Amino acid sequence: MAGSYTLALLRNGPRAAWSRVMPFASDSDAIAAAGRIAEAEGRRSPEPVSLMVGRSGDEGQVDWLGGWDWDAEGELFWEPDDSAGLH
């Protein structure tokens, strides 16, 4: 059964540049898709970006799983939810 996931792109600060709610079959599918999007956004941006991914719940609540970070050196890495910063 597919679930709803929130993806939020961050650039230089805690406010999202954009966010989307999308259906995925599992956490791993959502995380993998978010990684591809984060890499594409990072390649387009002259600054580091982060793409947060979380399970969407009732009444707009999001249980953040973590985030993909594209750093200034052009490297992509995953940080699990304890360092996500949007709880």
Protein architecture, described:
By secondary structure, the chain is an alpha+beta fold. It has one domain. It has one helix and five strands; from the N terminus they run E-E-H-E-E-E. It has a five-stranded antiparallel β-sheet, covered by helices on one side. A hairpin with a 5-residue loop joins strand 4 and strand 5. It starts with a strand and ends in a 7-residue tail after the last strand. The C terminus is likely disordered.
Structural class: alpha+beta
**Span of the ends, CA to CA:** 25 Å
Order of strands, main sheet, comes to 2-1-3-4-5
**Rg over alpha carbons:** 12 Å
Number of strands: 5
Integer count of domains: 1
Unreliable stretches (pLDDT < 50, length at least 5) are 83-87
Secondary-structure element order, N to C: EEHEEE
The largest sheet is: 5 strands, antiparallel
The percent range for helix content is 10-25%
List the total number of helices: 1
Overall morphology: globular
Task: Determine the mean pLDDT.
Answer: 90
Q: β content, as a range?
A: 35-45%
- Quaternary state of this entry equals single chain
List the helices and strands and how they pair.
Layout: E1 3-10, E2 16-24, H1 27-44, E3 49-56, E4 62-70, E5 76-80
Antiparallel strand pairs: 1-2, 1-3, 3-4, 4-5
Q: What's this entry about, in short?
A:
The protein is α+β, with helices and mostly antiparallel strands and 87 residues long. The protein is built from one helix and five strands, in the order E-E-H-E-E-E.
Q: Characteristics of this structure?
A:
disordered C terminus; alpha+beta; 1 helix; 5-stranded antiparallel β-sheet; 87 residues
